[in-house]
Amino acid sequence: MGLVITSMIMVAVTAIMTSVARGWNDQRVTQSTQLQANQVYARVQRILSAAKYVVSPANNHSSSSDILFWANDYNADGAVEAGELGLIELDTTTNTLYYYSSSSQTGAASTQMSWSTLQSLTAAQLKGWSYMQKTALGGPGNSGNANALQVTGAQFYVTGLSSTTQLPIVEFTLGFKKNGQYVTLYNCTTMRSPTTQPN
Amino acid sequence: MVLVICVMALAAVLAYGMLAASAVQATASNNGVAASIAQAQAESGIRLAMYYLLNPQNAPSLTSSNGLSYWPGHGNITFSTTGSSPMQAPGNVTVQVGAPTNPSSQVYVYPVTSIGSSGTIGGGAVTRTITAQIQVNTAYQIQEATAFNAQLTLPSYATITGSPDAIHSSSTVWINASATVTGNIRSPTPPRNNGAWNGSWLAGSMNAPAPTPSDLNYYTTYSYQGQTYNAVQLTSSTLSPGTLPAPSSSNPLSVFYHTGNLTLTGNLTLNGTLVVKNGNLIVQGAGITVTAPTGLPALVIDNQLQVKNAHQGITVNGIVYAGTGFGVSGLGNTMGSNVTINGAFLANSPNLAPASSYFGTLSVNYNSAYASASAPALSNASQNQVPQSVKLVSWNP
User: Fold this and answer.
1) Domain spans of chain A?
2) What residue spans define the domains of chain B?
3) Cis before B164 (ω within 30)
4) B1 at A interface, C-beta within 8 A
5) Which of the four pLDDT bands, split at 50, 70 and 90, describes residue A151?
6) pTM for the complete prediction?
7) Angle between helices A2-49 and B2-54 (to 10 degrees)
8) Would an 8 Å CB–CB cutoff place A13 in contact with chain B?
9) Nearest residue, CB atoms, B21 vs list A24, A50, A193
């Protein structure tokens, strides 16, 4: 009789422990995903808040899965050079969000870009420039780690580029997946030091 | 008994685990709040720097670089609401403003570092640093009736009226008997007054208050309504009503220049700007009037504004820059001649003709409300620049 009671109590305790452990694990995964997603958001916001002008998507135009922008006027000449451009793009093959920026401001990277040239510039062309380097803002990159945070979606929308009364706003949506759990972050940032449309 | 102890141990482990998880969550939450506070403080620090760079007169302290005064920043700044029950925002910010670069005329770029701190929230402080470059566009601003870059002796024939300031000199000011000054005098040492002076002495520096030849704008080109125009050269050494070029679409503000001495003859009326390079501007006629366009000076003369002979007269509505001051041309008697400037008179080396050689009058009338006393591009010397606009040129969070 005593053994039966003891067994029943032990089963109950085991059930409770299992339940609590699963709960903790789920909570850990959720918190971890949320924290990592916030980190990615913070990186994107940091880059876009310093941008000078957005080339694409166009102002008040439909959203895009990548964003091409004038990242910084490093030489303060008021003109866009190739090495001052930035691109944030989602790589759907590796589920990684990449930031492409120049490692140099000299040589070919110092080539001035007219507005008409910028408008016809594609992401593939920019990524093909030898001085462009890519940095993972979030996702497993080329590690192939299926348990790492996956960036499954990205959308960018720009408004207020031509406004004289408010700072331009970049809205962005980022989708994440980890251990079967999905998180979507909606956010926006203002460009703190914008300029008018380059010539 | 053993069973109870085991259950109690398990319960203790569970309780500890729950508490630990809760504590981690609380810490993460606090860190998020602290990071937001630090970021907001850092951004506020940059905006505060922009305000004080645009409005240095409101800054709690100033430093200077090449004669340009600016706010150098401050440590541990806090923000609070105003009113009867002010509330202080959490956290603080330290702002550092570096000496400006001068990439182009009347444009100054300041490096600014703003370090926002959350203060002690949850046991530790979180900081965020933003570096930015702030561009300030400036304009040359006249602030007195006369400005001289050397010792001044004001002859008896002079009447200077400034509201509120009459004279600004980088050296000693002597007011001779019968000279009249209404308004304050700013100079490094108190004026030596033997004339009629109604005003106060304001301690000034030895920095040049007037343009110098190296920073003077000769308006060879000028901007008007977003377009750039060229000044028109006057080849003749005499300018009379008959030889004055008519206004044209290629020179809409009637800006003219001449190299060498230029003589103005009677009854000439010029609504424009006259520039005399390497020479004097000689007034030899009565009824001459020069009125400056808005935003430009009336006369820019490398050497002197001179009067020749008796009963001559010129009225200038605008700023007059005469590099070497005011004098007499030739040996003729100048009795009854009148020179009136409604604007400002500026000179680099103020040689004013002594009363023993000029027998007419020289009157300068200035009021800060005069539109004619504004020439924002007259000089790019840093010490006379007043901020006009400010913008962020770079931002690195």
Assistant:
1) 2-190
2) 32-79+89-141+386-396, 146-375
3) yes
4) no
5) very high
6) 0.78
7) 10
8) yes
9) A24
